[in-house]
Design brief:
Elements: H1 15-34, E1 38-39, E2 45-47, H2 48-55, H3 60-65, E3 67-70, E4 76-79, H4 84-93, E5 102-111, E6 123-132, H5 137-153, E7 160-166, H6 170-186, H7 193-201, H8 212-220, H9 230-245, E8 251-252, E9 264-272, E10 280-286, H10 290-293, E11 301-307, H11 308-314, E12 327-332, H12 337-349, E13 354-356, H13 362-371, E14 376-381, H14 382-387, E15 389-394, E16 400-404, H15 408-414
Parallel strand pairs: 1-5, 7-8, 12-13, 12-14
Antiparallel strand pairs: 2-4, 3-4, 5-6, 6-11, 7-9, 9-10, 10-11, 14-15, 15-16
Helix pairs in contact: 1-5, 1-11, 5-9
The chain binds one RNA strand through helix 3, strand 6, helix 7, strand 10 and strand 11.
RNA sequence: GCGGGUGUAGCUCAGUUGGUUAGAGCGCCAGAUUGUGAUUCUGGAAGUCGCCGGUUCAAUCCCGGUCACUCGCCCCA
């Protein structure tokens, strides 16, 4: 059969996957709102400049991963490859510096033109948390607490570990970066090909290299902790103490880095070994330079993003929010249709989930009810109509009894729909 | 963007050392059972063997290209 395929790297979300998404989002929303975060929805596309300015002209995301096009008015626009830039733009556009701290959560599709693999699509969905306007480490701690609560409630915390690092403030990071460049430049001949490119473009990323040969060099490379100035040290220890106070476990991974210039201090990733090469389930950090870089007032910020598809792979079936079990209305004989419809309508108005098939004899309709995992089938024939009753069959038990139409709603509710 | 693997029914997969009608299980549809489902039994539909081209008397099978998926790299959620 000739297939109509969706665009490469995009997927339809339906059936069980849709249930998984909904479960994840509802838990996310519930956790975020408990921390008094408010929802913000920014457009899924922005002027290309918004992303270029913040992500940098040389980053991979900008150079090869953006979905960019010219609209009919001649504007260069880009489908968002991440949330933070759009939210920071919205912060500036809406003059929200007047109402800091801004605690946001957001959710939606995100686009990167990449080669698809497991856990990596061209259109994927992220959940996002940001606190803008707070320079204190409490914000970092709180944002991590949200993440931890989310993972706990999704039942996947046991498969995930928090890797934590500090990049230090700007001064510390610049000094460290210089030291790294100097060190690796002395060992150019031993570096992998990829790492030679990184040395030019993004030297700190060498620390994350998967190349065996690089590992030996990385072992002896300068450590970022040796370059923290006093403010950086204090800030990092505040974050760590805060996490310990809340009982949030973490592992310091001093090779965890961020390439982009606006990142500072806290950087973290929740990773799992259950998703192949794409082990990062949730990641973020502090970005004190971002809003200013976009042309807004100097404003600190911290946040994270999490990939829903990756989460959806990890959650187990028992946590998935099941669809409410429905009641199937089964008219018996053509003359019962109108009354059956009316009963279905009344039950729906009472908040009960009802399905009535469009055709078929009783046997077919019962089969359908069973396939839909209905809890009750309600048979309504002329006989019942005359006596104002319904034959209610419990499909789990196989038993059935006549219930007065007047008591039907109460009966169904009592029997836990 | 780079390298490897895979592509047969809605799903999971057999199969053909190139040969005439391509199979199974599950699912789906129908009947046994026109006022009672999940079990059972019987029957049925469903495939241009991913697509295009090449080699051949003959290609689902061999070769090339292409598309999609997949594993890894780059990078990232």
């Amino acid at each position: 059969m000739a297939r109509l395929q969706p665009v490469r790297g995009t997927h339809d979300i339906l059936g069980e996957m849709s249930l998984r998404f909904r479960t994840i989002f509802e838990i996310f929303r519930s956790v975020a709102e408990r921390y008094s975060h408010e929802q913000i929805d920014t457009p899924i596309f922005e002027f290309t400049e918004t992303f270029k300015k913040t992500l940098g002209d040389t980053s991979d995301v900008v150079t090869k991963e953006m979905y960019t096009f010219e609209d009919r008015g001649g504007e260069q626009v880009t489908l968002r490859p991440e949330f933070t830039a759009g939210i920071a733009r919205a912060f500036i556009s809406n003059c929200l510096q007047q109402s800091t701290p801004c605690k946001f959560y957001s959710f939606g599709p995100t686009f990167r033109y990449e080669r698809p693999q497991k856990g990596r699509m061209r259109q994927f969905h992220q959940m996002d948390i940001e606190i803008i306007g707070v320079a204190e480490a409490q914000a970092d701690i709180e944002v991590l607490a949200i993440a931890q609560d989310l993972l706990n409630e999704l039942g996947i915390a046991k498969h995930v570990t928090l890797e934590l690092n500090s990049l230090g403030d700007r001064e510390s990071r610049m000094n460290y970066r210089a030291a790294l460049v100097q060190y690796f430049s002395q060992h150019r001949d031993k570096l992998s090909k990829d790492s030679l490119t990184r040395l030019e473009k993004n030297p700190m990323r060498i620390l994350d290299s998967k190349d065996e040969g690089d590992h030996l060099l990385i072992e002896k490379a300068p450590r970022i902790s040796e370059y923290y100035n006093d403010t950086s040290k204090v800030f990092f220890s505040e974050v760590r103490e805060g996490l310990e106070g809340l009982g949030i476990d973490y592992h310091i991974k001093d090779r965890l880095v961020r390439g982009l210039d606006y990142y500072c201090h806290t950087a973290f990733e929740f990773t799992t070994d259950q998703l192949g090469a794409q082990g990062t389930v949730l990641a973020g950090g502090r970005y004190d330079g971002l809003v200013e870089m976009m042309g807004g007032p100097r404003t600190p910020g911290v946040g994270w993003a999490s990939g829903m598809e990756r989460m959806a792979e990890l959650i187990t079936y028992d946590i998935i929010k099941k669809q409410v079990r429905l009641v199937a209305i089964v008219p018996v004989g053509d003359k019962s249709h109108t009354t059956a419809m009316k009963i279905a309508h009344d039950l729906r108005k009472a908040g009960i989930v009802v399905d009535m098939a469009y055709k078929g004899n009783v046997g077919k309709r019962m089969k359908r009810a069973n396939k839909q995992n209905a809890r009750f089938a309600i048979l309504i024939g002329e006989d019942e109509i005359v006596r104002s009753v319904a034959m209610v069959k419990n499909l789990d038990k196989g038993s059935q009894e006549e219930i007065s139409l007047l008591k039907l709603v109460d009966y169904l509710k009592e029997n836990k729909l």
